[in-house]
Each structure stands twice: as structure tokens, then as C-alpha cells.
Amino acid sequence: MDRRSFLAGAAALGLAAPARAETVKVRIGVGGKPLLYYLPLTIAEKKGYFVEEGVEAEINDFGGGARSLQALIGGSVDVVTGAYEHTIRMQAKGQDVRAVCELGRYPAIVIAVRKDLAGTVRGPGDLKGRKIGVTAPGSSTALAVQYAMIKAGLKATDAPLIGVGGGAGAIAAMKKGEIDAISHLDPVIAKLEADGDIAVMIDTRTEAGTRALFGGPNPAAVVYTKQDWIERHAAATQKVVNAFAKSLKWLAAATPEEVADTVPPAYHFGDRPLYVQAVKNSLESYSRTGIPSQEGMASVLDLVRTLDPELQGAKIDLAATLEDRFIRKAMG
Q1: Stated pTM of the model
Q2: How many whole angstroms separate alpha carbon 282 and alpha carbon 145?
Q3: Cα separation of 186 and 16, whole Å?
Q4: Tens digit of pLDDT for each residue in 166-205?
Q5: What are residue 162's DSSP bridge partners?
Q6: Rounded to the nearest 5°, which phi and psi values hold at 106?
Q7: CA 191: distance to chain centroid?
Q8: pLDDT tens digits, residue range 247-288?
Q9: Angle 294-307/85-92 helices, nearest 10 degrees?
Q10: Number of helices (H), then strands (E), in the chain
């Protein structure tokens, strides 16, 4: 039977193709969308995975993870791609915020010093009094450098943190000498490295570098939202997670060149080969399963407890920071 006859017969029997899934609008917050930390979001957008899943994604870029979190708590976004540690902090404050999908299994944060200071500032222990550029105070880039300072015997407050955003502004701040050191992500770090502006001290783009700083795996970007939103919008949550799952699967097989072809050209900072190298540096950091490990979650809890005295005595239920049923279904 040819296809036309089959379809005609199917229609007559009431077996017409199913109607397209109903579209849901979801407002997504992100803290520095061009950063490779959040690459799975851009891939889901540009590869059409949100559209395929029936999600009309309204993406709001706040320039820093702490601001994305504020938007979620304030109700101006529904879902955030942001650092896993925010779920722990919110639980301690009585807010039920849960990760529904892991995007990054390593933080991919690099801590570096301005090249002309490299002889004086040899490690995090030498950062006292130095101006340190981060995406935004309170964001994962800020916490990572504060944690490194504490491990080196300093206090988290021993150096001022300067919010420089997630893009070209961060590069300009270093080039103009407005900051002495930086805790940031690719492609910003790759650009500063290539131009000879910085000397790298700590690199968590790899498993080895992550273990060196945190003592184990350390889940980074996740998709998180309020538990009551999950309960009221379970179908929408599944659609969003499905899109991110497709993104992670695509990234696991993609070449750096394919990634560069997919993202907006503005993400390249005018240097496509450099962006390709930045992606190559960071590809290892993306989650393969979408589910953070128990060891990694415990490592992040140790991080936030070290940085925040208020959390040292707080009872934290790590199981309540993760709602993994959606990603398990999406990954099959």
C-alpha cells in the first residue's frame, strides 16, 4: 500500500496523526548566557529542542547566578539554569528549591591573576587585598575563589569581589587593570589566556583540577526551580528537562567546531578559533547523565558550609535538593 492510500485509510478510521503537543510558556533565568557554563541552555534553544518539546522558552539573562536566583524567588522567572549550591542555600532559608537536571559535572571555573602580578601572586593565599573579578558577588565564581582563599589560610572577606558580568565587560576589566585577579569561565578565560593577560592558578574545567580544589566531584550548573512549581507544572517540568536532556546528549557527541557553528557568532568574541579552543577545554565538564553524584552533592554542601557560618549548624537534607525523576525519564 502506498503512503497516500495508507494515510487516507488511517484518517477514515480516525487514526490521523496525533495533534502537536500543547505549547507551554516557561520563563528561564540565566546568569551570563554566553558563558560555556550555560552552554546546554543555548544548545537547547538553537537546536530547537525547546520547540520540539512544546516549550516556548523566554530566556532572561541576568549577568550573574545570584540575580537569577533572586528572580526565581521573586517570581519573575519559573526555572533557572544556575549553580547547584543555590538549592542548598535556599533549603537552609526555608525555601524548597530543587535541581531537576545537572548540566555541568565540574564547575569549569578558572582562578587566575593578572600577568604582571604573577610573580607576586602565586596562589590563592596571596590574594589578600587584591580586587577579584567575578560574574556577580554571591555567584558560583565568587564562592569558588572565596573557598580557595579559605583553603589557603585566608578569610573569605580578605579580598574585595568585583562584579564584572559574564561577557566582554569581564575581559575589559582585566585588560584595563580594574581588577587584579579573576574567577571566571570560558570563553572569557580562553580569551584572556590567548591574549597573555593572565596566569592561571586553579582550573576546574577538568576532573583533576576539580578534585584538587574541592577534594572530589563538584556539580556545577543545574536546572532548578521551586518544588511547588514542579508540583503545579509537572508536565511543563518534564518538557523542559527533555529539552535539556537532548542538549546534553548532543554535546556528548559534538565537536568543538559544531558547537561554534551552533551558538550565536557574538559568543565568539570576534575570534572563532579561540572559541573552538575554549569549547575543547570545557567539553569534559558537561554532565553525561543529567544526575549529580551523591559524592558531588556532599562536596558542594561542604563548600557552602565552609563559606557560610550560618549553614554550619543547619540541618540539610541533600535528597530534598534534587528531583531526579524527570531527568531519569528523559534519559531513558
Answers
A1: 0.85
A2: 19
A3: 48
A4: 888 999 999 999 999 999 999 999 999 999 999 999 999 9
A5: 133
A6: -125, 150
A7: 19
A8: 999 999 999 999 999 999 999 989 999 999 999 988 989 999
A9: 60
A10: 16, 10
